[in-house]
Description:
The protein is 30% helix and 26% strand.
Amino acid sequence: MLTALTGAFGDRADAVSVAGRTASYEELLGAAGAVAADLAARAPVRAFAVTATASLETVAAVVGGLLAGVPCVPLPPDAGPAERDHILRDSGARLIEVDFARRAPAAPTGPAAASDTPDPALILYTSGTTGAPKGVVLSAAAITADLDALADAWQWSAQDTLVHGLPLFHVHGLVLGVLGALRTGSRLVHTGRPTPEAYAEAAEAGGSLYFGVPTVWSRIAAAPQAAAALSGARLLVSGSAALPTPVFRDLEQLTGHRPVERYGMTETLITVSGRAGGEVRPGAVGTPLTGIRTRIAAEPGAEIGELQLVGPTLFSGYLGRPEATAAAFTEDGWFRTGDIAAVDADGMHRIVGRASTDMIKSGGYRIGAGEIENALLDHPQVREAAVIGVPDADLGERIVAFVVAEGVTGTELTDFVATHLSVHKRPREVRFIAAVPRNAMGKPQKRLLSDGEQRGE
Ligand code: MLC
Ligand code: AMP
């Protein structure tokens, strides 16, 4: 996976740049070697965690884990105590500190020999519709298969300079945005934050391949000067949530590029994508990547239904949760994405919705309504809570919490969630109601809440 670190593409002082600090491949390999040596000295270590700030330290930790064969659990840096404790306890990971100045000799190994038990490389925590986040175990083989398929689709090579500023604790920023650069040998410029100004500045430094979630692209489209700076890029890629057609059109007008969309999930990595030089259609996410097969589980006569898939990029399971893993697959072994899709006559896939309203995508972050409801119910003044995602021009969806509570303000509840879980999981609005509407079985009727919200009630 770490082809660039073998010297296959040469080296340069600024091969990897994160939030303004640069390192050569040799320096990165040395720092990662020190992490790997620490992990080996503490063996056996089941997994290790690192506070995944946007930094060279996070890159060194992840690479060190790969060298040592110990899976890394990247912790969201703003995770509050509840989320942090859950992830550390659930994974059994030991939290380590990285000093990028420390170096130890290391050599990246070749691809792991084929075996029935693929080596876990990363454990990424992600929310389901209910309960606490689950650890998604990703093998080195799955990651490598995905990166190679993407390199093929996007003609991604060592000639590229990859630019993005996405968080380093999810698939988009970490797997594609860091490991992808180390696999293909493209120079990496991580801008620290994904702001229009930072993306534009990186264009002057030769940025050719740009990654962003739709919120990032819509902010760029609203900053015409920054957008114009991207006209010299080779390829703009959007993913993690649906790219609104107006944003697509604005970007095309301002940058001269038709952004390529791709679709994925933590559990499957990226499975469907547009191709560099291929047809790019607004509202469509492209065709299956090499090795991926898809099908639509539709009712007889219907053309849309749940997107299901199989292929070499799939996860190895939810850590310690065999039942949840089994439930994620059909009886004949296809992964159930929970996304509702349609396939056009020419094979172009379109994502048209999600099976569950309890899965919210806000700013490209996947947030389970149940996790936010549980956090709110942990507040002593809250008696009932129901959380929904409401369409939002900037974030795609914004989290709105309906609560039955007295003696507490909406801001206090927002801050409670932001500090208890993570900042991005905070409700953007809190509405106080007399009771959560329920059906005869006592199940919250969230449809009534979202319909009222859309009517502005
Ligand atoms: C506001 N802030 C608070 C707060 N209110 N802090 C604490 N308590 C409160 N009550 C502060 C924050 O600290 C932060 O400060 C600032 O407000 C803004 O935070 P934010 O609202 O979270 O940022 P925002 O600008 O809205 O973020 C937009 C965004 C972000 C696009 C930058 O949503 C983002 O990075 N999204 C990427 C998600 C992603 O990578 N998903 C990929 C999943 S993988 P400060 O100082 O820090 O600014 C996947 C697979 C696939 O989906 O297909 O790719
Ligand atoms: P996550 O687990 O954070 O990786 O989120 C995965 C989910 O993001 C998918 O199930 C989809 O709902 C959504 N998603 C990712 N990419 C796209 C896209 N290009 N268009 C629409 N939804 C997407």
